[in-house]
Specification:
This protein is mainly β. Helices cover 0% and strands 46% of the residues. The protein is built from no helices and 11 strands. The chain has strands spanning 3-7, 10-13, 18-25, 33-39, 46-50, 59-60, 68-73, 78-83, 92-99, 117-118, 122-127. The strands form 2 sheets. Strands 2, 4, 5, 6, 9, 10 and 11 form a 7-stranded mixed β-sheet that branches. The chain starts with a strand and ends with a strand.
């Protein structure tokens, strides 16, 4: 059974940084596509940053480039999201997803995948 568990969220002042972690078990880490999404109340979930299947060719939402970086460590089955220079607009629930379908790039982030396995999310709040 695939399990996805996020951690690392919290309250931070604008300009600060956070590192989110996502541990994925029960799935072949090198075969699944993995990524980060976020959602605020009343809005649709949106893709933040994703790897292709096998952990290559990362995609980052254009408005977040230069501030958000996705990474992974296969040895501990963990996906990361490094967020720098945080802004109040970055406040959201952040979700990790593991998609079993084959993706040649990380652009699967552009649509929220129904087929993916999801965690329960970790809350990020950025104060002004």
């Amino acid at each position: 059974q695939v399990q996805v568990v996020e951690s690392g969220g919290g309250l931070v002042q604008a300009g600060g940084s956070l590192n989110l972690s996502c541990t994925i078990t029960g799935a072949p880490f090198d075969q699944y596509a993995m990524g980060w999404f976020r959602q605020t109340p009343g809005k649709q979930r949106e893709g933040v940053s994703c790897f292709s299947s096998g952990g290559q060719k990362p995609y980052v939402q254009s408005s977040l480039k230069g501030r958000f970086t996705i990474a992974r460590d296969k040895s501990v089955n963990t996906l990361y999201l490094r967020m720098n220079n945080l802004k109040p607009d970055d406040s959201a629930m952040y979700y990790c997803a593991a998609d079993p379908r084959h993706w040649g790039s990380g652009t699967w982030c552009l649509a929220v995948p129904r087929e993916a396995y999801w965690g329960l999310g970790t809350q990020v709040t950025v104060s002004a």
